[in-house]
Amino acid sequence: MTHILAIDQGTTSTRAIVFNGSMQPVATAQEEFTQHFPASGWVEHDPEDLWQTTLRTCAAAIADAGLDPTDIKAIGITNQRETTIVWDKATGRPIYNAIVWQDRRTADTCAALKEAGHEAEVTQRTGLLLDPYFSGTKVAWILDNVEGARARAEAGELLFGTVDSFLIWRLTGGNHVTDATNAARTLMYDIHKGHWSTTVCDILGVPTSMLPKVLDCAAEFGMASAEHLGASLPILGVAGDQQAATVGQACFQPGMLKSTYGTGCFALLNTGDEAVTSHNRLLTTIAYQLDGKPTYALEGSIFIAGAVVQWLRDGLKVIKAAPDTQALADQADDKQDVILVPAFTGLGAPYWKPDCRGAVFGLTRNSGPAEFARAALESVGFQTRDLMEAMQKDMGGRGEAVLRVDGGMTASDWTMQFLADILDAPVDRPKVLETTAVGAAWLAGMKAGVYPGMDEFADTWALDRRFKPAMDDEVRTARYARWQRAVAATQAV
Ligand SMILES: Nc1ncnc2c1ncn2[C@@H]1O[C@H](COP(=O)(O)OP(=O)(O)O)[C@@H](O)[C@H]1O
Ligand SMILES: O=P(O)(O)OC[C@H](O)CO
Asked: Does this complex have an ipTM over 0.90?
């Protein structure tokens, strides 16, 4: 009985992966679910979809591994972060859909809070910015827009949680807990003191009685009941998906850096026990917390990475499948320098412009699908360079020169080579790309005593391919300068 079940509840799909005692994945089940867009800039999920896809993928992965649920030693959970659910304490029924991290409906609230001079205080305590991305203003929106919700919350009848918290509450039949990394994304958690900030909750208008208890990433979150999973199983590991990927990439030393390329792109730089305050609009967050001790990170969050490829496929319809971008980009005319700024849902770090929208520069009569494909892939590299520039300024030159990458888009050799070229730094792609699930599994397996400690786990990290910079310095400088001008122009419109 040494298998670990990892649940990865993501933005577009839910995955369950069974790992054996050697930390190798032996079975995976995945289900997509419906995205709801009720108004411009709004993104919601039905919490029942998140719950049902979790139950179904867990059952399918366990069966596919040829196991009985009783063969699972422990569960690790990782999840899309910031996404906000408020549910009835008595029934477990959500009172509104989950408001997804991408949702921009609270942009005006954030602007008003900034106007009122609250940003410095909020940032000092939480490490975050007053942006609709985070949970706090989404919770307040639900309380103010669902009839009777605020009074019920104040009476202690409603609970808030990020997706991990909601799934654990349901699986355990009422444990209201989360881990420090998810708490650190809510805009309500004091990352320095390690508890909910009553000051910030008051500013946002969220009653603290709604908030879950915060535990380490490897801790006893409760027993998932046999009614749901076929056996009573302990939940022993929890981390937000980007933090789980940081763990899965074994970025355990200060200065180590990973960047995950899925729908969006999230780069985390381990800063050890120092919570570095960014002066360049990056976030300060908790990378992981073990034995009561937080390890901090600087984070750069980009909202559109792989999603730009989905746009080529579903919006422009110039490709049939994501890998088609490679051949198209190769055909692009070198003399055309088309720049695409994919600010489809605003710009994230380091700009934080929720109302900004995308733009294309440098079009000619000859510009076509090939130039668009190349510009789309390049936009991911340029945006990462923006993050790396900000990180270098914040760290004053401290930090690794190597970037460890993962996520679906790292399958694109073309994109990874451009990334190395534009960063002028090596890019390391590991053999195992399911680093998010690996991170969650390791946290649970380590707590259960079936997986090794941190150092031995770090030694298992294996390189698939290193992409080395090959671009001429002058070309790199000129192309990045052009990108910066394009971003400035996009913000000016
Ligand atoms: N070969 C490829 N070339 C370019 N983009 C790709 C390729 N394969 C996958 N992608 C992109 O990667 C994303 C999927 O990555 P994944 O890590 O599964 O994302 P998420 O967990 O956010 O749903 C999609 O947006 C897709 O467009
Ligand atoms: O579900 P993903 O992989 O798109 O990740 C979403 C992030 O956690 C948002 O902060």
From this structure: yes
Cβ 14 under 6 angstroms from ligand 2: no
Residue with the smallest CA separation from ligand 2 atom 10 is 81
Q: 282 to each of 186, 231, 386, 423, 473, how far by Cα in Å? A: 16, 43, 11, 18, 27
Residue 188 confidence (pLDDT): 97
Distance 435 CA to ligand 1 centre (A): 14
In order of 5, 168, 198, the CA distances from 252 in angstroms are: 23, 27, 31
Taking the C-alpha atoms of residue 437 and residue 7, their distance in angstroms, rounded to an integer, is: 7
Residue 99: partners with Cβ closer than 8 Å, 6 or more residues away: 42, 43, 44, 83, 84, 105, 138, 141, 142
**pLDDT confidence of residue 396:** 81
Give residue 299 CA to ligand 2 midpoint distance, Å.
Answer: 13
Q: Which atom of ligand 2 lies nearest, measured to the CA of 263?
A: 4
**Cα gap 190→285, rounded to integer Å:** 10
For atom 10 of ligand 1, which residue has the closest CA?
409
449 in a labelled binding site: no
| Residues of the chain scoring pLDDT < 70 | 397-401
> What domains sit in the chain, N to C, each tagged with a CATH number?
3-242 (3.30.420.40), 250-430+462-493 (3.30.420.40)
DSSP state of 344: B
Q: Which residues pair with 235 in a beta bridge?
A: 75, 222
User: Rounded CA gap, 61 and 29, in Å?
Assistant: 5
Strand ranges (E), 255-338 = 257-261, 265-272, 283-290, 293-302
pLDDT of residue 165: 98
Supply the pLDDT for residue 468. Answer: 95
Burial class from Cβ neighbours inside 10 Å (0-12, 13-18, 19+) for residue 202 reads exposed
Q: Is the beta carbon of 11 within 6 A of some atom in ligand 2? A: yes
The three-point CA angle 2-3-4 to 5° equals: 120
